[in-house]
Amino acid sequence: MTVHDKFLALGTHFGKVFLLDIQGNLTQKFEISPVKINQISLDESGEHMGICSEDGKVQVFGLYTREGFHENFDCPVKVVALHPRFSSSNYKQFVTGGNKLLLYEKNWLNRWKTSTLHEGEGTITNVQWRANLIAWANNMGVKIYDISTKQRITNVLRDNVSLRPDMYPCSLCWKDNSTLIIGWGSSIKICVVKERGHTELRDLPSRYVEIVSAFETEFFISGLAPLADQLVTLYFVKENSDHMEEEFRARPCLDIIQPLPEGYEEISSDALTVRNFQENECRDYRLEHSEGESLYYIISPKDIVVAKERDQDDHIDWLLDKKKYEEALMAAEISFKNIKRHEVQKIGMAYINHLVEKGDYDTAARKCQKVLGKNMELWENEVYRFKTIGQLKAISQYLPRGDLRLRPAIYEMILHEFLKSDYEGFATLIREWPGELYNNMTIVQAVTDHLKKDPMNSTLLTTLAELYTYDQRYDRALEIYLRLRHKDVYQLIHKHDLFSSIEDKIVLLMDFDKEKAVDMLLDNEDKILIDRVVEELRDRPELLHIYLHKLFKRDHHKGQRYHERQIGLYAEYDRPNLLPFLRDSIHCPLEKVLRHFQNCRMGNCRRALQMIMEELEDVDKAIEFAKEQDDAELWEDLISYSIDKPPFITGLLNNIGTHVDPILLIHRIKEGMEIPNLRDSLVKILQDYNLQILLREGCKKILVADSLSLLQKMHRTQMRGVRVDEENICESCHASILPSDMAQNFSVVVFHCRHMFHKECLPSPGTIPGVQFCNICSAKRRGPGSGILEMKK
């Protein structure tokens, strides 16, 4: 048999040739000979066919024309091959082979000319023509002939000469115009025809052959064909080989192998079952291939088997057989997309069934999203199946909830299932599912019934509030949220403008979250007036302070009527912010502020002093406290309290001298009062006074000495010279302070502040004769500077 992209040509043992289409249907039949057909050849166009038979007949003819060549030889003709471009008038050439290889060429007189290409090495058993190269095999080996140069360019010897050539025939196959694949016995060789360099030519052919790969196999080759950079091999298993198990020993096998320089790697292997395979031998099988269709034909005496590369459908079937459903589903989605959606669903359903049988309900439910798509019937069937096996919860989170929606009863059934055993899961579904999926009133009633058994359940109450919100019964939702002190209460108020409902609930809101409550109140002053808020918080000054403080931070004037009240609130609850408040507020009279704090301070200090005197009766601690406060009124209170207590008077006399005039205390002591250690106390007062006098005199001496030293230092500093150069400028006219011609007369005034002026640029002197001030420093109020240097030349 030979193969064309358009049809097949099949020769039989009874001398007939059949033309079949690619599907194997008979299209034409030729009666050629009463004996077997040895070889059929087709040109590239598929318009001409060459046939040779065992009785020596050779026919070359056009399938669609009357032209032809008919010849009978006196010996069997084993092979025939047409020039690939035989249909062209310039390439009317073909070869035949029996005991010798003959080339037939049509000359310009339209007659056939014969020439012998090779003889003397036994029967020609195979011939293959590609472009300008003819390859043939005989008992000795394989030869290649270049028809363009009329030179034989190589001879590849047969490796295993012990094998009979008729039992183990040579297989030849051109991979491309320069690569020949040879299979003979158990060896495979890949030969590449290459051009010689000009320096190598001499008397040698212009081309040569390089064997790029040669290796032995564990089987006998029946046929070869290329598959990209790999090889498809049809082989007959050796009788004693361990390559395959016993039951497959006599079957032909089709392998894909990867050739290596000195070996090969097996990619895949398939054992073929053909009729009467037990009786067949290596020579009974042939392998042909169609390059255009990537089809491979295995020919046996009784069958033709078509092989093709496995496609994605085959891969998916294999994955399903191996229960690799995930990979099969991914492969199907990539391959089929929308063309075979039902096929993807079929695979996906098989995967879901497998997962359910395994007990992996969550994964099975998750796959429903991808597999079931928008098929509502399949979705509802799966939901009821999950209900039957008690796994409604598993599928709940994957139900469609967008454009595709199931019947409300489906969603309600799942919600009731959660409500029986999982309040948290029920609440999650209510939050996640749009309210349009189910009948809201049905679910509200179900939740209400459950609350009768558990009225304080916060999860159910929160969920009920959400259901009321969706049903636009905001008053009921707000009531529940406030009762629960739920964080969503603020969102609910804002979203549905419920400010009129919360005027009497401001304290409750602030107790829940002060910051959020105050921000909400301030953001909506037009809906809840400031006066109303202040009125509600009058009994909670700490909350009132927070509200008024934030109000003041936003706008210094809005709450001005409460600024005076805020002074006390700041003093009580937020002293660090009191000073910034007083600094920024223009609505607090300072005299009131001062009076408030004086009263507050004195009241506190007097209460503290009274506690020390009355409860602790510790005069030393009372005196220490008065010293710390350093307040005359506090000393007066201390004296008044102590004047009728002699021990206290002694303590005051011993310590008062450096803070209060002792005469004030002595004048108030009653005549005849006995005071312990009075003499020592009076001596101490005089000693303290004397010490103060000495300290003052010492300080005076130090002050005078320091003043004199600093005056002398200043005088020395002012007497120093000041550097003046061309980089200095007049501070009045901004010209260089020194003239460009130093020979001219000039006058410059330099002050101690280092400002320099041309004499003529200075303003007139001040009211003090002989004293000139720097007008720049005087303008900046940095103090006057007198001229320290007048330069003249």
From TrEMBL:
Top-level division of the source organism's lineage: Eukaryota
Function: Plays a role in vesicle-mediated protein trafficking to lysosomal compartments including the endocytic membrane transport pathways.
Entry's Gene Ontology BP terms: cellular response to starvation; endosomal vesicle fusion; macroautophagy; protein targeting to vacuole
Chain positions of CHCR repeats: 518-651
Similarity-based family: Belongs to the VPS41 family.
Domain RING-type: 730-778
GO cellular component: clathrin-coated vesicle; early endosome membrane; Golgi apparatus; HOPS complex; late endosome membrane; lysosomal membrane
Molecular-function GO terms, alphabetical: zinc ion binding
Keywords from the named record: Cytoplasmic vesicle, Endosome, Golgi apparatus, Lysosome, Metal-binding, Protein transport, Transport, Zinc, Zinc-finger
Major place of residence: membrane
Topological category with respect to the lipid bilayer: Peripheral membrane protein
A Pfam family hit: zf-RING_Vps41
Compartments in which it is found: Endosome membrane; Late endosome membrane; Early endosome membrane; Lysosome membrane
Name the UniProt record assigns to this protein: Vacuolar protein sorting-associated protein 41 homolog
